[in-house]
Amino acid sequence: MKSIVVKIGSSSVTRSTGPDPVVLTSALDAALNARSLGWNVVLISSGAVSSGSAYLARTSSVRPSDRLAAAVGQPFLMDIYRSVSEVSGRHVCQILISAGDLESPPAISSVCAVLSECAQAGIVPIVNGNDVTDLRGSDNDAVAVGIAVASGADKLLLLTDVPGVYDKPQRDVTHRLSLAASSIRDIPTASTGTGRGGMRSKLLAAELAAYNGIETHIADARLPDVIRACVEDRPAGTCIPVAGERFPVDTRWISGVAMSCGSIVINRAAEESINTGASLFASGIKRVEGNFRGGDVIEIRDPSGRLVARGTSRVSAALMSLVRAMQTDEIAIVMTEILGKFLQGNVAGRPGGAAATQEEYRNMRPPVIKALDIVGRDGYERTRRLALELINLFPAATVEAMFDGQPPDGLKRLRERYGSLSSDLSFVDRRRLVTFHQAAGR
Q1: What is the pTM of this model?
Q2: For the CA atoms of the chain, what is the radius of gyration?
Q3: pLDDT value at 288 more than 70
Q4: Cα separation of 206 and 141, whole Å?
Q5: Is 147 exposed, middle or buried (0-12, 13-18, 19+ CB in 10 A)?
Q6: Based on the domain organization, do 245 and 265 belong to the same domain?
Q7: 64 and 198, same domain (yes or no)
Q8: Which of 44, 82, 130, 297 is deepest in the core (most CB within 10 A)?
Q9: pLDDT tens digit string along 309-325?
């Protein structure tokens, strides 16, 4: 059987008084009936926070946190779903997903195994982000696309409180949206209603799904038979078509399941390089966005905003921002300056004092001077974090310099070692990189 992941937004699920039983009943009825059409349905149901908030506003004088509201509201949602399923003699189950689950391949594999069991048993899974454990709140658009990619779904349907993606001049619904950067990245959006993500979040989820071989529809949750229309390929809101092939199971965690912790913009030469399986060097990085750490999944985009690849960063955003667009010898100077400052007890001296002579400093390119100035102004904690990162990145060379009896000579040798090691430093792990160059030509 084919499968579709259907996400219902908070602004559609709840009214001012709590959950909207009409919308929830209609969605579950459609999911229960979809099997006769050859489809399994996974429901991603938002609304726990807004449902709990509405209930507590009527029954308590205390203003609850989102965590408490979610804990109170989730049973209300499941009570409605269970009452509908019992009338039809079918079953539902509840699955709560946290951001940490999406970051863990074993955890998401376990979730997919349960979803497979649900499909075999004819049980409709009701999935929601876990707002109790996710301190920043859950993003159910990201949960929906993550589940769709991980489970190999055929379609993704994002239901909201508007008919679809509006055309900018006329405010008419665009029924079919291409994946050009002007269609996805440049569409003006506004966050409205009670939901957390808004249309921007849905468009980015649809973009990621498309590059993973999944067709996405963004439609009005109150449109009659909207789920049936989607599985029968009838017009339903805005369609974002498939823009790439489905990836093998062992690469889906990188290609579309794990939540992105940031992004980098690369130049054309770097894009051509990674498309051929080569390394991504600092010289090809134009801009760094986010606050990711080494080991986090990040997005790689071209200057127009088009998604080029996703992969695991080998360094933090802080270090990558310092050395982006630099050559190997320039990277070595900045890295040596960081460690030199750390070894000298974070003493604020002239820029480039530990890593370069005054003459070298005067002849440096502006980006290098700027990086050295930033390092010179950094406080102890940031210097320490960067130095520890370098130790983990190049342990043998760095530790040798730290224990050298003559610091100036040790740093000079370290700069030479860093220059040699940086010549093969890929800033994104080549073994954990998925490119979308096949989709670019569609």
Answers
A1: 0.89
A2: 25
A3: yes
A4: 9
A5: buried
A6: no
A7: yes
A8: 44
A9: 999 999 999 999 999 99
